[in-house]
Amino acid sequence: MVTMSCSNSSNADWFIEIESPDAEEVLPEWIECYIIENIDPTICGPLSKDLSAILPLRSPLSSAETNASTTNQFPKTDHLKRARRRAATENEVKLSANNSSAQTQKLSSSSSDDKTSCGNKKLKSEDVESGDINTEKQSNGHNIKKRKQKDRSNQNSTPWSLDVLVGSVQQCNDSLKTATTTRNATSPSLLAILAKYGLSEESPNFTRQSLPGRPAKNKEERDEWNKSVWPTLFFEKKTTQFKQEEIALTSAEIELMKNGMQEALADAMMGYTQWREWKEQIEPSRDKELSLLISGALVIDPQTGSIVSRASQERKLQGIAGDASNHQTWASFPDYINPLSTAPLLAIQGVSRIERQVAISNGMESDKFRGGQYLCTGYDVYLTKEPNIFEAMSLVHSRVRRVIFGIPDEGMGGLGGPKSSGQEAGIHSLPGTNHHYRAFRLNLSDGSDGCIGGDMTRKSLVAELRNLHPEKEVDCRNI
Amino acid sequence: MVEGVSHDAVRNEVLEKYFMSQALRVAKEALDVGEVPVGCVIVLRDVNDFDPSLTTMSRQYDGPEPDDAFDTGEHQYLTSSPYVIVSHGANQVNATRDATRHAEMVAIDRMLTKGRSSDQMKLPADVIQKSAHGKIPNDYTLGRVKDGDKWINVPSCATHWKNNFGWGSDRIYDKDVFSKCDLYVTCEPCIMCAAALSMVGFSRVFFGCKNDRFGGCGSLLHLHKPEALPSAKHHGFPIYGGILEDEAISLLRSFYDRENFHAPDHKRKRKLPVDNVSS
């Protein structure tokens, strides 16, 4: 059977997502940090607060750009929690037993408990500073409350110790260095803070340890770290695992994209037919040498898989004189008389034409219009050729969901084509604009072949597209 | 184009301010119909370049004396300069339901195709009139019949030869004309428009205020520079910013102080920041 031979095993090869170059921040696996082990619960809270004042774990959000130079010089510690509670080692149990009998007799267990929870509150407020996902904040707060109750009940059964994170080694060293050069009365030095709590760099419990340099990739890793390394903040929606699962294309989506590319090719073919029609219609002697590069463009509603608008359709509507109902002759050829009437723009105008029709037939106050389509929101655009910057930005303004194209344009392309121009290439993910879309290109390289349907394979699709856009000869080995 | 620039890069402050004030006039009319108030005019620098037969035309102002509304600079422009406004445009995003119908696109479309992708695509006035979901402020005049869509270079003399060039005169231009034209736009062209201006090959581009959100001429990208793209097909264009900047900003502010009543309910923002500028 034909359909069997066109199995979807090679679906994943069909399209390549164009990601913005700075999308993935490279973080180290581990970073060296100073921690103070087995700290007295009564000073944990105040110490954490004082440390946060001079060695904050979270980089300030508001001034992210202006501070880029200063924050970049230290490893990121946004994901680390300030304090860790762990089961006490045997030595520590002995030590604390001695201590408590000798000097901390007067501290009742209940008041020490209060102090601990106080420290935890401070930690919580620091988490809030980081300004991360709300639900996470809340669940953190929840955990703390639960833990507090657990603490009370388990107080006597399992002895535990508190460790406090001072900061990354680089950050601490920098702090020590600047403290000696500029003694500022308003912000105390690290040494002064340590001294305030009877600690110093020389204390035996002031140690150096490798802590996770990045947020956990998944829950298992987070639990593992919490248990045996160091507690971290965990944002499921920010993990690479979640992101990859979230953005992965389903095979149904890829099937739709394959069909969309084929339809875009058909649209470009139709465009050339229209161009020939127009040339034959005007004086044949003059226009033999007229040439025009026409690409194909269409807008698809991914919810239904239906084609909303085709460039060729809109070109016909704009090019054929309105009252020539009997002859249907071209009054002018939009792409030729206006260099800005390119295929992607015509396809966008086709969508707006439909919206206007809804507005006229139902009235703009109607629920059907008001709850209906707004610009190209949620729609996917298929192009035979990479859009240039003009077209790519018009798609941003139109708020399309995805753009899928065939042949890259290394000279003028707006979605990664011009490699030499660096950041100016990715209009779809330009920082600062009010809308981003995902961009995909057809994989042009030879590889395992899959069928679209009928006898159209990827190889034949690519060959046809190259035929359409010959001036952009691209060495597919470099893509 | 490069030749055009070296050949005629002479600045004339009086003319620049005059043309920008005309662009602002177009922008104000857009505000009246609930569009983002960005306007532009396209100025053909020398009508003789365009049509040599025009050299025989009288360069003298033969109409009535200019009234008080015209200062000496404008009068000078009216009587002697070879500069002519050949097109103008304001945003038509809401009227066409097409987010790409920015002022520059509309002005270019009017010159080349008689507004086939903009004016001829606008919703009928009676439909637009009811468009605001019953929330039109009293001071809006959506349904007003305006003749602002026409353009008259010399309003005080309807038969002046200069009035023979603008939108409404039925004159159609070839796409090569832009190399002889300057664009005056109240707000820095967005990335899309900046790329478009380079594609059609404008000689010079003058703008009022910056466009922090979408600007393609220095704010986000530098598409006016020829080296912005590797292709030899990208020419860029010389830019001159900050002309009547304060007027352009206050006009935009007056729009963003109110909500965009054309957007559907679920898309409408209650409070828009003042610097949220789109051209």
Automatic annotation (TrEMBL), chain A:
Superkingdom of source: Eukaryota
Biased composition (Polar residues): 62-75, 132-142
Region of interest called Disordered, as start-end residue ranges on this chain: 62-159, 203-223
One GO-annotated biological process of the protein: tRNA processing
PANTHER family xref list: CYTOSINE DEAMINASE FAMILY MEMBER, INACTIVE TRNA-SPECIFIC ADENOSINE DEAMINASE-LIKE PROTEIN 3-RELATED
Protein name: Cytidine/deoxycytidylate deaminase family protein
E.C. no: 3.5.4.-
Protein family according to the UniProt entry: Belongs to the cytidine and deoxycytidylate deaminase family. ADAT3 subfamily.
Stretches with biased composition (Low complexity): 100-111
Example of a GO cellular component annotation carried by this entry: nucleus
Keyword entries, A-Z: Hydrolase, tRNA processing
One term of GO molecular function: tRNA-specific adenosine-34 deaminase activity
UniProt KW Transmembrane keyword: no
Record lineage: Eukaryota, Sar, Stramenopiles, Ochrophyta, Bacillariophyta
Species of origin: Skeletonema marinoi
From TrEMBL, chain B:
Gene Ontology MF term list: tRNA-specific adenosine-34 deaminase activity
UniProt EC number: 3.5.4.33
CMP/dCMP-type deaminase domain boundaries: 14-219
PROSITE patterns: CYT_DCMP_DEAMINASES_2 (PS51747)
Classification via Gene3D superfamilies: Cytidine Deaminase, domain 2 (3.40.140.10)
Example GO BP: tRNA wobble adenosine to inosine editing
Annotated CDD domains: nucleoside_deaminase
Keywords: Hydrolase
InterPro entries linked: CMP_dCMP_dom, Cytidine_deaminase-like
Enzyme class label: hydrolase
UniProt name for this protein: tRNA-specific adenosine deaminase TAD2
Source organism (scientific name): Skeletonema marinoi
